[in-house]
Design a protein that fits this description.
- By secondary structure, the protein is of the alpha+beta class.
- The protein contains seven helices and 30 strands.
- Pfam families: TAXi_C, TAXi_N.
- Belongs to the peptidase A1 family.
């Protein structure tokens, strides 16, 4: 779970300086995100921002990234023995939030959003035990004329992620999810249902999308997600919001975002699109399938630091065909980049040898004393070489200055890369993705990017 949370709102406002502006143009949904640590974010109380230091915030980034990486490891290995071939809802770390309007008449809810999960779900009445959320007013199905429960024979019930569904009186489809390491104390459960989601266009007109499958959660033990009303998943499964939107006329199965660097302010918004984005991206890598999950795996063929290509065996980056472990994924919900074994050791060692400043140990980070840094001090790029869609020369995903360092104090900067033990998947986190326009083109099975300024 990363330290950066942005708020994404489907509110409409034509004023360019409106923090939570959002628009729909020709079936493309566009929204703006703000940083979790900014006082205006609904995800973070102003008092927390004003009293926490930068070092405390990046320490939290490490804890959350490690927790989330642990989630990915447990989830794949747990599923490999269960015969389950769909990804469960992420309940350990979600880095983004948005507001959605649900029901008839529509009512707005604040939900976490994440590329590592597949399901849309809300706290619902009767709420036996719900997470403490922003409004403290769960969705009430009895107050919506468009609410419908899924029947036992519906595909929404029989094909529910992780197959944790059951039927009871009077015939509705119930679900139960266990999260993280499968501990029974971390769960959500409720009713599989359908609802209308309403979006607002820039011209203040609105349109409703009917029959969105969602989980009407009535019993959760997820109190670490205070101030939120539920989750929205963006992963590759059939229950994710982009997949469901792609079934609506005019939408394609694609989304994109452009993240401001860690430490950005509310004056600088990250953008998010559902549908075909306005983009000139020409660099793409293939999305690789892991039958045990719906995460966004890519084929990493090598890593360079500066001009030095590291001696890492190519098969080191492969997905294990037996248990689905290993590989590398793009994930917006993990703040830091996570490498394992020889990959981590060689990257950090080579970076330290090229970046000629004293190393400072602040576990779990590797940091540097930058008090003597000058304008001529060279910060080497870290480059991930990925398979191109044409299978020709690899394409490069470049981590430059703002992707490589987090400022710990006035004199110390820390690498945004942490070590994980195998058999974990390696992760290209959202700090690495900052100042890249990222396109998840699910329709064509590829991820594209372009280096840019997202502010």
């Amino acid at each position: 779970m990363g330290v950066v949370i942005f708020a994404m709102f489907w509110c409409s406002d034509q004023a360019p300086d409106h923090i939570f502006g959002s628009c729909l143009i020709l079936q493309v949904l566009k929204s703006y995100w703000i940083h979790r640590d900014h006082p205006d974010s609904p995800a973070s109380a102003a008092s927390t921002y004003n009293t926490s230091s930068q070092s405390e915030r990046i320490a939290a980034a490490a804890r959350r990234s490690l927790t989330r990486a642990e989630y990915f490891s447990h989830r794949v290995l747990d599923d490999s023995s269960s015969g389950n071939f769909d990804s469960p809802v992420e309940a350990v770390g979600s880095d983004y939030a948005m507001a959605v309007s649900v029901g008839t008449p529509p009512r707005q809810f604040i939900v976490n959003i994440d590329t590592g999960s597949d399901l849309v779900w809300l706290n619902c009445k009767p709420c036996i035990q719900c997470i403490v959320n922003a409004t403290d007013k769960p969705f009430d199905p009895t107050q919506s004329t468009s609410y419908r429960e899924a029947s036992c024979t519906d595909a929404a019930c029989t094909g529910f992620p992780h197959r944790n569904s059951s039927c009871g009186s009077p015939g509705g489809c119930g679900y139960t999810y266990l999260y993280g390491d499968g501990a029974a104390s971390t769960y959500t459960s409720g009713i599989v249902a359908y609802e209308t989601f309403t979006f607002t266009a820039l011209n203040r007109s609105s349109f409703a999308i009917e029959h969105i499958t969602f989980g009407c959660g009535q019993n959760e033990s997820l109190n670490r997600f205070r101030r939120y009303d539920g989750f929205v998943g963006l992963a590759q499964g059939s229950f994710s919001l982009p997949r469901q939107l792609s079934l609506v006329s005019g939408f394609t199965d694609i989304f994109s975002y452009c993240l401001i660097p860690f430490g950005g302010t509310a004056a600088n918004h990250s953008t998010f699109y559902f549908g075909v984005p306005e983009t000139n991206i020409s660099t793409y890598t293939l999305i690789y399938s892991n039958p045990l999950t719906s995460y966004y795996y890519v084929n990493l063929t090598g890593i360079s630091v500066g001009d030095v290509s590291l001696n890492i065996p190519a098969d080191f980056f492969n997905i294990n065909s037996t248990d689905g472990s290993g590989g590398i994924i793009f994930d917006s919900g993990t703040t830091l980049t996570m490498l394992i074994g020889v990959a981590y050791d060689l990257v950090v060692g080579e970076f330290a040898s090229q970046y000629d400043l004293p190393v400072v140990s602040i576990p779990p980070y590797v940091c540097f004393n930058v008090s003597n840094a000058t304008a001529s001090t060279i910060v080497p790029n870290i480059v991930f070489h990925l398979q191109s869609v044409s299978d020709a020369e690899p394409v490069d995903f470049v981590l430059s200055l703002e992707n490589v360092f987090l400022r710990y104090s006035e004199t110390v900067e820390c690498l945004t890369i942490l070590s994980r033990n195998p058999p974990s998947a390696m992760i290209i986190g959202n700090t690495a993705q900052a100042n890249h326009e990222m396109v998840f083109d699910r329709a064509n099975g590829q991820i594209g990017w372009a280096s840019t300024t997202c502010t």
